[in-house]
Amino acid sequence: MNLSGKFISFEGIDGCGKSTQAKILSEELISCGHKILLTREPGGSDGAEEIRNLLLTGNTDRWSAETEILLFTAARRDHLERTILPALENGLAVICDRFSDSTRVYQGVTRGDLRDLVDQLDSAVIPRQPDITILIDLDPTISLARAIERSNNEARFENFGVEMQIKLRKGFLTLANEFPDRFMVIDGNRTEAEVAENISKRLHEIG
């Protein structure tokens, strides 16, 4: 499996286990001798981390959907410029916890049907998309319970409730159908180890 210079993103609804699986995969690849950068969105650079704090804290109505899209896109551009592209150019594989697909779903689908705006901004200022997107698909009720259990001061989106998580899951699965060559849908309704093993197997199959 040659992942040098590859960009892999993890997506899914809150509490689906994507952050854990991104970490497990990065550790597995490092143990096999791969050079890996593990990063996250929003965040991954100094400027983007500052924007993260604005986006993920406070009341659920703190920002309009349009403002959220602009903030997420600004954070993503800084992250891409300062962290992701330099790593890819140096031959590292980049594993990112969320990327543009999260904005397409969270703000573009569930917060006002603004998918076209997300895509227009992405096309204008985000020149690189993931090569592989791993979608951890999990029952929204289970996912939200997990998210609330580990909730911290970055719980703004979890606070929208299970109805939003149901819409989010549908939005991610719709994207997976729209981009089948890029998306890898993984059943998250299993143990952590089983999910990790499935991801590793699927990557070896395409690698």
Give me some keywords for this one.
207 residues; alpha/beta; 13% strand
Protein architecture, described:
With 207 residues, the protein is of the alpha/beta class. It is built from 8 helices and 5 strands; from the N terminus they run βαβααβααβααβα. It has helices spanning 18-31, 46-56, 65-89, 100-106, 115-125, 140-149, 162-178, 192-206; strands spanning 7-11, 36-40, 93-97, 132-137, 183-187. A 5-stranded parallel beta sheet has the order 2-3-1-4-5, with helices on both faces. The longest helix is centred in the middle third of the chain and has 25 residues, at 65-89. The mean pLDDT is 91.
H/E element order: EHEHHEHHEHHEH
The biggest beta sheet, please?
Answer: 5 strands, parallel
Low-confidence stretches: none
What is the percent of helical residues? Answer: 40-55%
Strand residues, percent: 5-15%
Widest beta sheet: strand line-up: 2-3-1-4-5
Number of distinct beta strands: 5
Mean pLDDT: 91
Inertia-based shape: globular
